[in-house]
From TrEMBL:
Superkingdom in the source lineage: Bacteria
Cited PROSITE patterns: ABC_TRANSPORTER_1 (PS00211), ABC_TRANSPORTER_2 (PS50893)
Descriptive protein name: ABC-type cobalamin/Fe3+-siderophore transport system, ATPase component
Residue intervals of the ABC transporter domain: 3-239
Organism (species): Desulfosporosinus youngiae DSM 17734
Gene Ontology terms, MF aspect: ATP binding; ATP hydrolysis activity
Pfam families: ABC_tran
PANTHER family, A to Z: IRON COMPOUNDS ABC TRANSPORTER, ATP-BINDING PROTEIN (PTHR42734:SF19), METAL TRANSPORT SYSTEM ATP-BINDING PROTEIN TM_0124-RELATED (PTHR42734)
Keywords per UniProt: ATP-binding, Nucleotide-binding, Transport
Higher taxonomy: Bacteria, Bacillati, Bacillota, Clostridia, Eubacteriales
Signal peptide interval: none
Length: 266
């Protein structure tokens, strides 16, 4: 399944768009990591792609079909959205949160049926989070909450996952827990588009990187091509040294011969 954004214009006012001329595509099994400074428009881009705010120009297509013509339920059955970890106002169980992902398949006022529960249980097994199933969502750690949000999205049976900074505010261990699951999902054939504040994540877990700056695309391509000391200085106004560690990666997602890390110098 091919997700494509062509000539995208995103924002809340036609007179002052946030992003212009955004073009990219993500094939089945690929991970695209979007990088850019705070306020550059990553969340606006995601909301536009999902139809939560109207595209000001351009098109979003899945296998050539313009999704602006789809119903909300049709979009939800194809594209899963994973926001940054949130705090719901009610004390839902983990199972209840995951079952919310089945809403797109339920009729008005309908309740989850045995088939919905079976799908939820399958997702729990896939993500290896059975230990969480009897807990309340609000009792979980940040990393555990993100895994539950991933499970909720997977219960939609999507082909594409859009993830808005899935490791934001997580400690190192929880970051790795979530990122490892993201890569495993790509191995199963899902197309994944995620925003991150960490260039290292793109080196380790992404096939493609897209850098945003000044209302448009600064650069796009493989992480090794576009994430450079020069581009990081331009994006974040920070002097950075990119170091080849010489350590062979466990999963050579980008095809590189060793792992790269970014070290800020100022």
């Amino acid at each position: 399944m091919l997700f494509a954004l062509k000539n995208g214009v995103c924002g809340y006012s036609a007179d002052k768009p946030v992003l212009r001329n955004i073009n990219f595509q993500v094939a089945a099994g690929e991970v695209l990591c979007i990088l850019g400074a705070n306020g550059v428009g990553k969340s606006t881009l995601f909301k536009s792609m999902l139809g939560l705010i109207r595209m000001l120009g351009g098109s979003v297509t899945v296998d050539g079909a313009d999704i602006s013509q789809w119903s909300r339920a049709e979009i939800a059955r194809t594209i899963g959205y994973i926001p940054q970890a949130n705090n719901p106002p009610f004390s839902y169980s983990v199972l209840d949160v995951i079952l919310m992902g089945r809403t797109a398949y339920l009729g008005m006022f309908a309740s989850p049926q045995k088939e919905d529960e079976r799908i939820a249980e399958g997702v729990v097994e896939q993500l290896n989070i059975a230990r969480l199933i009897d807990k309340r969502y609000q009792e979980l750690s940040g990393g555990e909450r993100q895994l539950v949000l991933i499970a909720r999205a997977l219960a939609q049976l999507p082909k594409i996952l859009i993830m808005d900074e899935p490791t934001a505010a997580l400690d190192f261990g929880n970051q790795q827990m979530v990122l490892n699951q993201i890569y495993r999902l790509s191995e199963k054939g899902l197309s994944i588009i995620m925003a991150s504040h960490f260039p290292d994540h793109a080196f380790l877990y992404s096939h493609k990187a897209l850098l945003l700056k000044d209302g448009g695309i600064y650069s796009t391509g493989s992480p090794n091509q576009v994430i450079t000391e020069h581009s990081l200085r331009d994006l974040y106004a920070v002097e950075t040294k990119i170091i080849n560690t010489g350590i062979l990666p466990r999963s050579a997602v980008t095809g590189s011969t060793d792992i790269k890390v970014c070290v800020p110098l100022s």
